[in-house]
Design brief:
With 109 residues, the protein is an all-alpha fold. The chain contains five helices and no strands. The relative contact order is 0.12.
Length: 109
């Protein structure tokens, strides 16, 4: 938790996260979640889900370069989750991971 205080809280600029968000605000909110999750060393399955949501938002607010980069991160996190079995004990099944991984591979083409 100390790393969050050092890297995020000490540089915090107030934001309102409880209101309806624009696409850009939603993307920035998920990016913050991804950054904090990486700092906290969250499970790969958690980071994969966050990256996937960011990529979905980039379908609405097109930015192909960034969207592809985020899809790549999601793909890497799903692969890491599958290979380390860190999804065990979560609501995500092996079949769901493989399905999302396959969808990401197809979308990457």
């Amino acid at each position: 938790m100390e790393i969050i205080l050092e890297k995020v809280s000490s540089h915090w600029v107030p934001h309102h996260f409880s209101k309806e968000r624009s696409i850009i605000n939603a993307i920035n909110t998920y990016k913050l979640a991804s950054y904090c999750g990486a700092l906290k060393k969250e499970k790969h399955i958690v980071l994969a889900g966050i990256c996937l949501r960011i990529a979905w938002l980039y379908r609405i607010k097109p930015n192909q370069g960034t969207r592809r980069k985020i899809f790549k991160f999601a793909l890497e996190e799903y692969e890491a989750s599958y290979s380390t079995v860190d999804f065990s004990g979560t609501q995500v099944s092996e079949a769901r991971i493989l399905s999302r991984w396959r969808n990401l591979m197809e979308d990457r083409q």
